[in-house]
Amino acid sequence: MGKPPLRKYFDKIRFVFFTSFILCLSLLLLDYYMAVSGHGITFLFFNMNDAKQAHMPKPSNSSFNLNDTADCPRKSNHTNQNGVTSGASNIPRRIVENHTETIVPAAHGEVDKRVHMNSPPLDRDNVGVVTNVPTRNLDSCSGQYIYVYDLASRFNEDLLKGCHSLRKSIDMCLYMSNLGLGPKVIEKSKEKVLLKESWYATNQFSLEVIFHNTLKNYKCLTNDSSQASAIYVPYYAGLDVGQYLWGGFNVSIRDASPKELVKWLARQPEWKRMWGRDHFMVVGRIGWDFRRRTENNNDWGTKLMLLPEARNMSILLIESGSKDNEFPIPYPTYFHPSKDKEFFQWQKKMIKVSRPYLFSFAGASRHSSSSIRNEIIKQCQSSRSCKLLSCNDGHNYCNDPVHVTKVFQSSVFCLQPPGDSFTRRSTFDSILAGCIPVFFHPESAYNQYLWHLPRNGSSYSVYIPERDVREKRVMINEKLSKVPKSEVLEMRKEIISLIPRIIYRYPSSRSVTVEDAFGIAVKGILGRIEAVRRNITNVNYTIS
Predict the structure, then answer these.
(1) What's the rounded Cα separation, in Å, for the pair 87 and 269?
(2) pLDDT digits 0-9 by tens, 463-519
(3) Deepest of 5, 57, 294, 436, by most Cβ within 10 A of its Cβ?
(4) Are 390 and 360 contacting, i.e. CB atoms less than 8 angstroms apart?
(5) What is the 8-class DSSP label of residue 314?
(6) Which helix (H) or strand (E) holds 175?
(7) Could you tell me which of 422, 485, 431, 424 has the C-alpha nearest to residue 453?
C-alpha cells in the first residue's frame, strides 16, 4: 500500500533540508580552509579587499574614551631584515591626495565661516583605513604590522649617549631619562594639583624618543618586512639638528646625517618595493627646522625634508608646514599614565576642579612688532579675571609642571597665541587641565592636528582673529565674558573627553587599553600608507 500523500510531502521537505544542510556545511568548511590558507574569502562571504573605507568614531560627549584593542598573536623584537627581495617598479615619484576642509570657528557673535586650507591629506575621520584584512582572517594584526629598521647607532642611540651636547643652553640628559619622559615629578604642595603617579618633567622636543620607545611595545611588530603594512625609520632627527641650530655650524655638518640616512635607505630592498612610500619617520621638532632651501651657512636648520627620499616618506611631527607628506601629532605633555584608571581619575578631577579665573596666559613676551603677545600680556595684567604666568622673570615657573597645571586648572579659558612658531606645547597642557584654548591664528591647531582634534574647532575652542587683538579692536576679557555659559559647559565637556587623545601613555606599559595619542597616530599612519598603496595600485592598473 502506498504512502499517504501527506507523508510523501514531508519526505520531500526532509530531503530538501538535508541536502541544503550538507551544501552549507561544505561551503563553511571550504570558507574556513580558504581563510586559514590566506587565499581570502569567497562564495557566500564579502571580501574585505573590496572595502572602500573604515571610519574612526568621533570622540563622544562622555567624559571617557575607551577603545578595546585586539591582542596580536605575533610579538617580535624588531631587527633588520636584509634578505627580502623585491623588484623595482615603474611607480610615479609623487602622489598628491585630495585636501580636506577645516572649519575655523568665527569670533564670538559672528557666523562660522568654512575656510579651505592646505591641510594634510587624511583627516581624523579617515584614520585607520585598513582594506586588506579578510573578514575571517585569524590574524588580528593583519594590515597593522609595522617593521622597524635597525639603523646604525649614530642615528639614535649615540645621540642619547651624547645628550650633554644636544642643546646649547640645556642639558638634555635629564630629559632623556625614563624612556624620554624626563625625571618623575614629586609634588611638594599640599594642594594636590597632580595625581600621585605618572607625572614627568617631559621636554617638549622629546617626542621622537617617546614614540620609538612606545613602538617597541607595539603589539603588531614584525621581523618580516614583507609582511609589514608600514616601515618605521627610527632616526632622531630633532635631537640631531638641535646640536647645530646655534653655534655657527656649516651646512655640510648639519646635513651629514640626513644625507647618509637617505643614501642607506635607498639601498634597502624594503625601500624599492614602493620607493619609500610605505616608510615613516617621527621627528620631535617643527617642520621649519628641516626645510633649509639654500646652502648659506647663515640659514636655519637642515634640508632633511627637502631631500627626494624624505619627500616620499610620511613624516609625523609636532608642527607642519602644510606639506602633503607631513602629519602633525600632539606635543608630549607631562602626564603619561600606565593604567586605564589613571586616565579616568584625571578626567574626573578636571570635571570637579574650581576655576576662579575667566582666562589665563602662560608665556613670555616677544620683541617682534608683529607678535600679539605683548598686547595679550597687557590685557591680562589689566584684568582681575586673568591669571598671568610670566616666563620672563627669573623664576621661570613655565617649566614647572605643577605651576603650569595649577594655572590652567584654575582658568576657564587659556590663551594660546603664536610664539616662535604657530603652535605651542601649551595648547595640550591646557587641554590636559580641562581649560578651553583660545586661538588667534588658524595654523595654531585647526589646520594641524586633524587626527587628534575635532574638525569643528568651535566645539572645543574659541577663535579671536590675531588682527583684532593687534589693532586693539577686541578686549579679550569682554569677548570671553560674553560666551554663554551653556556653550562654555559644552566646550569643557568636549575638552575633557579629548584628554586621552592628546597624551602619550608610559612607553613600556602593556596594560593600557584607552586609545591615546600614540595609538591614534599609528592608526593614522597605517591609513595614510594604505591610501597611498591603493593609489599606486590604481595608477599601475590604469597604465597597464
Answers:
(1) 8
(2) 999 999 999 899 999 999 999 999 999 999 999 999 999 999 999 998 899 999 999
(3) 436
(4) no
(5) E
(6) helix 173-176
(7) 431
| DSSP β-bridge partners for residue 317 | 328
267 alpha-carbon distance from chain centroid: 29
Work out the number of other CB atoms within 10 angstroms of the CB of residue 21: 10
Contact predicate 134/65, CB 8 Å: no
Nearest to 511 by CA among 27, 10, 69, 11: 69
Is residue 234 within 8 A of residue 160, CB to CB? The reply is no
Is the domain covering 352-501 a CATH 3.40.50.2000 domain?
Answer: yes
DSSP letter, residue 359: E
Instruction: Output the CA–CA distances (angstroms, integers) from residue 542 to 96, 296, 534, 538, in the order listed.
Output: 17, 44, 12, 6
Phi and psi dihedrals of 221, rounded to 5?
-75, 155
List the domain boundaries for the chain: 146-332+519-535, 352-501
Residues in a beta bridge with 436: 413
Query: What whole-number distance in Å separates Cα of residue 400 and Cα of residue 449?
Result: 25
C-alpha cell at 373: 603677545
Nine-digit cell at 183?
Answer: 625625571
Rounded average pLDDT over 34-52: 38
Structure-block grid coordinates of residue 66? 575607551
Pairing of strands 314-317, 326-328: parallel
Q: pLDDT: is 543 or 299 the higher one?
A: 299
SS3 content of the chain, % helix, strand, coil (to 5): 40, 10, 50
Helix (H), strand (E) at residue 104: strand 101-104
Q: Could you give the angle at the alpha carbon of 525 between the alpha carbons of 524 and 527, nearest 5°?
A: 65
Give strand ranges (E) for 152-292.
230-232, 279-282
Q: Which amino acid is at 18?
A: F
pTM over 0.85: no
> Which is nearest to 195 in space by CA: 299, 89, 348?
348
The dihedral built from the CA positions of residue 193, 343, 495 and 473, taken in this order, carries a sign that is positive
Spatial distance between the Cα atoms of 534 and 541, rounded to a whole number of angstroms: 10
